[in-house]
Design goal:
The complex is a heterodimer.
Chain A (H helix, E strand, L loop, with lengths): L3 E2 L5 E4 L4 E7 L6 E7 L6 E6 L3 E5 L2 E6 L4 E6 L8 E11 L2 E6 L3 E6 L1
Parallel strand pairs in A: 2-11
Antiparallel strand pairs in A: 1-3, 3-8, 4-5, 4-9, 6-7, 7-8, 9-10, 9-11
Chain B lengths: L3 E4 L2 E4 L5 E7 L3 E9 L5 E7 L6 E2 L10 E5 L2 E6 L8 E9 L5 E3 L3 E5 L1
Parallel strand pairs in B: 2-11
Antiparallel strand pairs in B: 1-3, 3-8, 4-5, 4-9, 5-6, 7-8, 9-10, 9-11
């Protein structure tokens, strides 16, 4: 069973702090890694993707990937109340027809005033 | 990124009936997928909609229950057949741009079976 695991939370951080969201995966064949944000009652929205070991930064968001440890994380700097949502980690494995994504169960983030 | 229109956005259906969900994309895309998200849970892939051929179903999902069509590179439908309350869920269409690996989602269809 190929799995993607996340702590369900809720993770509470004060406004302005750094939120750190973590994800581990079991399939060593995984080659692409994604973070989605999902507000309650809405569909997932792609925030970041990363393919190579190391860090990738986009505005307040930084994705970190360590394939040896099978670990991917998302850092949100200067957290805002509008960042309060569920964050889904997704891992892509190449198949004959393209990448197949497996999603984690998500981490609920609450940014408190 | 592709603009994805999914309809209906929600529906309440009687058990034993069927509902067809449509997904329309504003550009040609290589891959289209259908996911289910049950209350409080993450996304589960139902099937990959293949253009011009039968869909590829994931373990636990069968064509008789979830028939899928994909007549061209911009449109797909998912039918939830002979519905029961256990089918109450959000159904999401997802696409990947030609040559890309990033997946984008439609706004979802919230289905309640009574």
């Amino acid at each position: 069973q190929k799995e993607v695991e996340q702590n369900s939370g809720p993770l509470s951080v004060p406004e302005g702090a750094i939120a750190s969201l973590n994800c581990t995966y079991s399939d060593r064949g995984s080659q692409s890694f994604f973070w989605y944000r999902q507000y309650s009652g809405k569909s997932p929205e792609l925030i970041m993707f990363i393919y190579s070991n190391g860090d990738k930064e986009d505005g307040r968001f930084t994705a970190q990937l360590n394939k040896a440890s099978q670990y991917v994380s998302l850092l949100i700097r200067d957290s805002q109340p509008s960042d309060s949502a569920t964050y889904l980690c997704a891992v892509g494995v190449p198949t004959g027809g393209g990448n197949k994504l497996t999603f984690g169960t998500g981490t609920q983030l609450k940014v408190e005033l | 990124s592709a603009v994805i229109s999914q309809k209906p956005s929600r529906d309440i259906c009687q058990r034993g009936t069927s509902l067809t969900i449509q997904c329309q994309v504003d550009s040609q895309v290589t891959m289209m997928f259908w996911y289910r998200q049950q209350p409080g849970q993450s996304l589960t892939l139902i099937a990959t909609a293949n253009q011009g051929s039968e869909a590829t179903y994931e373990s636990g999902f069968v064509i008789d229950k979830f028939p899928i069509s994909r007549p061209n590179l911009t449109f797909s439908t998912l039918t939830v057949s002979n519905m029961s309350p256990e089918d109450s869920s959000i159904y999401l269409c997802s696409v990947r741009d030609r040559g890309g690996t990033e997946a984008f989602f439609g706004q979802g269809t919230r289905l309640t079976v009574v």
